[in-house]
Amino acid sequence: MSSSPAESKTVHLIVADVWKDKDEEPRQVHLLLMNDDADGLVELALKILANSGYEEAELLEIGTLTDEPEDEPHLSAWKTALTGQAALIEFNE
Question: Phi/psi at 33 (nearest 5 deg)?
């Protein structure tokens, strides 16, 4: 039985508190991306968040998605990450 392309790729999920201005309340974001270099994952995530306009970021959790998410917005973000792009989900609260 052959595996699907999604099964052979690891999508990382990074949960972070971010600030566009260090004097405001933090906003939580979820960043989904693929990266074969586990050692460079944190640095890459911080670069992506900085390029998204966040002045500061505190990484809270780093994990991997082993199955396709069932619900949005994570399903769309997961599909975007599988294409090699980073997907950022921003939460208002």
Answer: -160, 160
Exposed/middle/buried for 11, CB within 10 Å: 0-12, 13-18, 19+?
buried
CB of 80 closer than 8 Å to CB of 33? no
At residue 93, the pLDDT reads: 61
- The answer to whether the pTM exceeds 0.70 is yes
pLDDT per residue as tens digits for the range 64-83: 998 999 999 999 999 999 99
The position carrying tokens 């968040």 is 49
Among residues 48, 62, 57, the alpha carbon closest in space to that of 22 is found at 57
Segments in the chain forming alpha helices (H): 41-51, 74-82
Please state, in angstroms and rounded to a whole number, the distance separating the CA atoms of residues 70 and 77: 11
**Alpha-carbon dihedral 47, 50, 55, 59, rounded to 10 degrees:** -50
